[in-house]
Design goal:
The structure is a homotrimer of 138-residue chains. The first copy, chain A, has 4 helices and 5 strands. With 138 residues, chain A is of the alpha+beta class. The first copy, chain A, has a single domain, classed as 4'-phosphopantetheinyl transferase domain (Ribosomal Protein L22, Chain A). Chain A has a 3-stranded antiparallel β-sheet with strand order 1-5-4. In chain A, helix 2 crosses helix 3. The longest helix of chain A has 25 residues. Chain A is globular, with a radius of gyration of 15 Å. Chains in contact: A-B, A-C, B-C. The interface between A and B is medium-sized, with 30 and 28 residues.
Chain lengths: 138, 138, 138
């Protein structure tokens, strides 16, 4: 089952400068990151870089889900608007260091409605920016 | 039909600094962007950023088509050379804000010959550059 | 056979500033690039950019392989640690200019064990950085 062939129907990319997010604002952080993500980033050598990388991953996932919906001709809303919190999309590395996507709430419901079985993401950082790419599979 | 499983055989990525294109040159713009794309970019808050994002998307699509051709062992030419215009590859967002790829002319013929059914693309911008990723599916 | 449908199960992205690698250190270069890659980069108009692009491609491939392993629930090690040489992953453009991935040694063994049939990669450069994306297919 887990090994069954998947096929990509949605892709997303996002990039952000490391100084572009309001990471000094606790409300911003709580609106967009789970407690587990916050602990995870604060324990990294460069928390700002880790928070920004996760942000890019979340945005790339949103774009990949919307891309998937367009691809299958679905009319259901795939986002809750530009300012919607990204708390529903949790990005935590597994033991291999591979970022895993865990969906809750609205994002989870959308993926269930679209029959999206899996969302993959990869993240990279430089000194000045982060970038992430995501793919949605049915 | 639209929901049939697709499989990715080609990927492409492109990035450009926001000041790297000759966007002040009307001939450059007309050679590479459709009238619909020009209107679309000029109506955006930051036209330079939008033009550069579409450029990256077009280049990423060209790379994904070439990647697909290599993947299936095809010897047909997939580009018309380094300076070829990108007018054949139109990038317009749908109502979900997902960039859609519309092919004409040479690019369309190549995709038909290679049995490429779908080309997906995603675009992101920062203050200084744009980046796009594309995938080709049969 | 070559045309059989593939499905993506792993993705990777990597970006590096053009001045971030120890390319002036011959040991660094020999540890991470094959002789063919070194010749190839030295013959390019901007060797530093080419070396950095290939580095990003190699790192993106490592991430895509690890992503694939996580996706299929495999516990086998997919890397030899953070400082492991990238010599096993050779990136050479084909006659279409599409970067092709050739695996040797540890990387090749891992892909065989995971039944990864194909690894695709795409590379892009700006004046200041390079970025690459990779996908693994079974």
């Amino acid at each position: 089952e887990q090994n069954a062939a998947l096929s990509v129907k949605g892709i997303g990319i996002d990039t952000e400068m490391l100084n572009s997010l309001s990471l000094d604002n606790p409300n911003f952080v709580k609106r967009n990151y789970t407690e587990r993500e916050i602990r995870d980033c604060q324990n990294k050598p460069d928390p700002k870089s880790s928070f920004t990388g996760k942000w890019c991953a979340k945005e790339a996932v949103v774009k990949a889900i919307s891309s998937f919906a367009s691809s299958v001709g679905s009319k259901i809303p795939t986002t809750q608007g530009a300012g919607a919190p990204l708390l529903d999309i949790e990005i935590i590395n597994d033991e291999k260091g591979v970022p895993q996507v865990k969906l809750e709430g609205f994002a989870k419901t959308v993926c269930q409605q679209l029959n999206i079985r899996d969302v993959k993401v990869s993240i990279s950082h430089s000194d000045t920016y982060a970038v992430a790419v995501a793919a949605c599979e049915e």
